Amino acid sequence: MRLGVIGCGTIARPAVEGIACDVHQITVSEQSSSHSKALAAAYDNISVADNQGVVDASDLIFLGLIAEDAPKVLREAKFRDDQKIVSFIAAATLEQAGAMTRPAPAVAIMMPFPSITRGGTPIMVQGDTALVGEIVGDHNSVFSLKDAKEMA
Q1: What kind and span of H or E run contains 111?
Q2: Taking the model in full, what pTM does it have?
Q3: Distances (CA, A) of 7 to 16, 23, 49
Q4: Contact of 28 with 54, CB cutoff 8 Å
Q5: Mind listing the pLDDT tens digit of every residue in the chain (152 residues)?
Q6: How far apart are CA 70 and CA 66, in angstroms?
Q7: Where in the chain are the domains?
Q8: Based on the number of CB atoms within 10 Å of its own CB, is 23 exposed (0-12), middle (13-18) or buried (19 or more)?
Q9: Cβ pair 89, 65 in contact under 8 A
Q10: What is 2-151's CATH topology?
């Protein structure tokens, strides 16, 4: 699967490291360039692009942005309706994340812990737990949460 990550900071980088050894092509954004460059240098299947380049190269896109920055950053990207979005943005509901990435639907909110890098960590998910499980479930335990209240 072709994965993308927009916003590659302290939450997203461990998530990327946790799946980098799996069979995915991963494109990470230039934001947080020290993290992005380090990931691309460490893994052959990771490349760096601007935000639109991430969108263009990806089937599934993870949003690792700060809540305050997300609307402005995502407004500039042109998403496709055949893409799926998984958000790491704690302050955004599934509906709010989806509104920022139309026509691509936000299908899940995922709360990874830094230990996802090593595997064996619990991953809380609201939304499409099966999809998130396909990506991170081989190495971690994925727990389904029913709504935004449980996510908070």
Answers
A1: strand 106-111
A2: 0.95
A3: 11, 21, 11
A4: yes
A5: 899 999 999 899 999 999 998 878 999 999 888 999 999 999 999 999 999 999 999 999 999 999 999 999 999 999 999 999 999 998 899 999 999 999 999 999 999 888 999 899 999 999 999 999 999 989 999 999 998 888 77
A6: 6
A7: 2-151
A8: exposed
A9: yes
A10: Rossmann fold (3.40.50)
